[in-house]
Design goal:
Number of strands of chain B: 0
Structural class of chain B: mainly alpha
Number of strands of chain A: 10
Strand order of the largest sheet of chain A: 7-6-5-8-9-10
Radius of gyration of chain B: 19 Å
Oligomer: heterodimer
Largest sheet of chain A: 6 strands, parallel
Number of helices of chain A: 16
Distance between the termini of chain A: 25 Å
Strand content of chain A: 5-15%
Largest interface: A-B, 26 and 22 residues
Shape of chain A: elongated
């Protein structure tokens, strides 16, 4: 009998071009594929994850090779790709490699933008969907819960998600550092270019309260303002508008400066020195660099923002290296836990424990009794051992039986817990009782 | 100096260590540890103050040791009270070293129990002295906030993110903190001056005497009054407010400690130390 093993078969942005990935879109409803996968022969448990950059199937199977082939056929059934291509664009990991892979995915180490937080939510949803359809069982439940806590550990220990690695994200982060909560702040867009729009979108996503658009052609300003339910103003109104807003993003095609230090100075006075964050993403620059010298005014141009992004990237790479270590360590723990779930070592552990107990108790008792002959002593020892063995008989039968209502892994885990085989200093720190039982129908 | 005081001092030092380690590593569990240690220190300190009160028989606010230790105590509780208002990350890394410094200062001041001159035996002593010292501790909190503001602002302005960018809250949060501490501190300072004046009237029949401490306090009061006035009229906020909070506190500290040393004959020169106690103080 071969043991159950984890298996992951997937397609992601690293291995497959978008032309292949887009053929595998399943929309929001993952229940259909999960059901179909659950019916694949040899697939005891399964989970289906689909995001814009990856489609993955996690499964538990006795015969991983065959299951992988069947799953690949199922996944590519409607794509029109030939089998060789399907093989070329998928990866398959088994056993601990699969565990490691899942940990890396959950911790966002395998993402296109390393450290982005969405993947964890997507994985949690996939898990919820699968457990609602009861396609996950004891092993996947444990593995997924473990993966979530690994992701949390990575996030708290390495700061991997803390750095902004795109210009617009860096600008939003800076705005928050300067202005605090953006909920009651407003932004003025000068010029209605693509970059300005992207940054505005990020800011609106952060709950900014108002968007004002100023543009050379008024119509374009109105169109863009409407998009964000903001208002438009003409370029001549720039200074009066500047008194009202907290952030300015400038991206005009103007050849000269559109805002000079001498113009901003009186604006600050009438703003009662409320801080102003100016972002100049235009080349050539729109804003006089001298503006940054004013009190409570912060001016960042495109190069400044690029520098921030570069620094953040370097920091993130360092964090990612640390995170990989965490993943390796945690996968090792999980491996030791899995190891403990095999029947033979569990029985051996049980016997060892009983023997140790007998010996220590015998020693205590016999040293307190005097005048016993060696023969009598031997009888007492035999008595103790046979009681212990009789006690163990039923649990061992319970483990070995194949027709129990409880899955074998669950029984193993149960017995190991009952007899404290994984107690403090036991062989498996990554195992029992350390995570929440939610979504774990077997426990 | 009693054993209890030494214990208090040690817990404060441990809390300071924890908050500095948190500053360096940003590990959440250390932050929690530091907070509990500081709260623990505050509690032990409270016990110490009660014991001291019972021991000396009057409110223990009359020697350098007592006044500075009380300031550390109110700084601690003022700081801890912020937990419920603002989330100011790493504020503790700036406040707790200050608390520890005050405690060390108190530790090296004489803790001898001296007889209280009859004129100081009054119900006004605890009221006036505790309000005044609490005022100083809120101004001290504003000072810490001001320092944090300037450190962070410097990095943002110069576009070189170093130690503080990741570790400090937003400039906005720090400015709010400053405003809050200054408002509370200023209100208490005003109240301290008023209670002092009423007490003076009882003892001397006059509300005010130009004793160096009182002069210094008046100047401090005017500095803060001007600062708050400017904030609301022409918008001296943020950077300038942070600078003013630092300048104001430097002056307050000078008034609180410096004047007592330089002008030891005055009424506010605390008892104890190496001063001859028999000297007439009024």
């Amino acid at each position: 009998m071969s043991a159950d093993t984890f298996l992951v078969l997937g397609v992601n942005h690293k291995i497959a071009p978008v032309e292949v990935r887009e053929k595998l879109t399943f929309g929001d409803d993952c229940s259909l594929p999960v059901k179909a996968i659950g019916e694949v022969e040899g697939c005891e448990e399964c989970l289906f994850l689909s995001t814009c950059n990856r489609v993955e199937i996690y499964a538990v199977s006795r015969d991983a090779e065959a299951a992988a082939a069947a799953l690949r056929r199922l996944l590519f059934a409607d794509t029109g790709l030939v089998a060789a291509d399907a093989e070329r664009y998928t990866y398959v990991h088994q056993g601990l490699d699969a565990v490691r892979h899942l940990y890396r995915v959950a911790s966002s180490l395998d993402s296109m933008v390393v450290g982005e937080p969405q993947i964890l939510g997507q994985l949690k949803k996939a898990f919820r969907d699968a457990s609602e359809l009861k396609t996950t069982g004891f092993l996947l439940n444990r593995l997924l819960n473990k993966a979530f806590s690994v992701a949390k550990r990575v996030r708290t220990e390495t700061n991997i998600g803390a750095s902004a690695v795109s210009i617009s994200f860096a600008a939003v982060q800076l705005a928050k550092k300067i202005l605090g909560n953006l909920g009651d702040k407003s932004v003025l867009l000068v010029g209605a270019g693509e970059m300005a729009e992207l940054a505005a979108e990020h800011l609106v996503g952060q709950g900014i309260s108002e968007v004002v658009v100023v543009n050379r052609t008024y119509e374009r300003a109105v169109t863009l303002a409407n998009k964000y339910k903001g208002r438009a103003a003409s370029l001549d109104d720039l200074l009066p508008q500047l008194e009202q807003v907290d952030i300015l993003i400038s991206s005009t095609g103007a050849t000269g400066l559109i805002l000079k230090k001498e113009e901003v100075k009186p604006v600050m006075r009438s703003r009662m020195n409320r801080p102003l964050f100016l972002i100049d993403i235009a080349v050539p620059r729109d804003l006089d660099p001298g503006i940054n010298e004013l009190d409570n005014v912060y001016l960042y141009d495109i190069d400044d923002l690029m520098n921030v992004v570069e620094t953040n990237k370097a920091e993130r790479d360092k964090a990612a290296a640390m995170a990989e270590q965490v993943v390796i360590e945690e996968a090792g723990k999980f491996g030791r836990w899995l190891e403990g779930l095999r029947v033979a070592p569990t029985i051996a552990d049980l016997k060892k424990k009983a023997e140790a107990l007998c010996n220590s108790e015998l020693e205590k008792t016999l040293s307190g009794l005097s005048g016993l002959s060696p023969k009598e002593k031997k009888s007492i020892a035999i008595l103790a051992n046979s009681i212990a063995n009789k006690m163990l008989h039923d649990p061992i039968m319970f483990l070995k039986a194949d027709d129990q209502a409880m899955e074998r892994q669950a029984r193993l885990s149960f017995v190991r817990g009952c007899f404290g085989l994984d107690g403090p200093g036991g062989r498996n720190a990554g195992g029992l009782g350390s995570d929440e039982p939610s979504g774990d129908p077997a426990s | 100096m009693t054993h209890l005081f030494v214990v208090t001092l040690c817990v404060y030092l441990a809390a300071t260590m924890a908050s500095l380690v948190y500053f360096a590593t940003l590990r959440e569990e250390i932050r929690t540890l530091g907070r509990w240690l500081l709260a623990g220190a505050g509690l032990v300190h409270t016990v110490y103050l009660v014991v001291r009160y019972l021991e000396v028989g009057h409110t223990p606010l009359t020697s350098n040791h007592e006044a500075v230790s009380f300031m550390a105590w109110s700084l601690t509780w003022g700081f801890l009270s912020f937990r419920y208002r603002y989330k100011v990350i790493n504020f503790g890394a700036f406040v707790s070293p200050l608390i520890s410094l005050l405690m060390l200062y108190a530790a090296f001041s004489s803790a001898a129990v001296r007889e209280l001159p009859p004129t100081l035996k009054s119900g006004w002593l605890p009221v006036h002295a505790s309000i005044a010292i609490m005022a100083y501790s809120f101004l001290a909190l504003a000072f810490c906030g001001g320092v944090m503001y300037l450190l962070l602002e410097r990095e943002i302005k110069h576009k070189r993110f170093g130690l503080f960018y990741k570790r400090l809250p937003s400039l906005e949060d720090l400015d709010n903190l400053n405003q809050h501490c200054l408002a509370v501190g200023f209100a208490l300072l005003t109240l301290g001056i008023i209670t002092g004046a009423i007490w003076a009237k009882h003892v001397w029949g006059a509300y005010w005497r130009w004793d160096p401490k009182m002069t210094g306090t008046m100047v401090t009061w005017f500095i803060y009054a001007a600062m708050l006035h400017q904030r609301f009229t022409v918008g001296w906020r943020r950077r300038r407010a942070a600078i003013m909070a630092i300048v104001g506190f430097a002056f307050a500290l000078f008034t609180f400690l410096g004047v007592s040393y330089l002008h030891q004959g005055g009424i506010h020169s605390f008892l104890g130390g190496d001063l001859p106690v028999s000297e007439e103080r009024f």
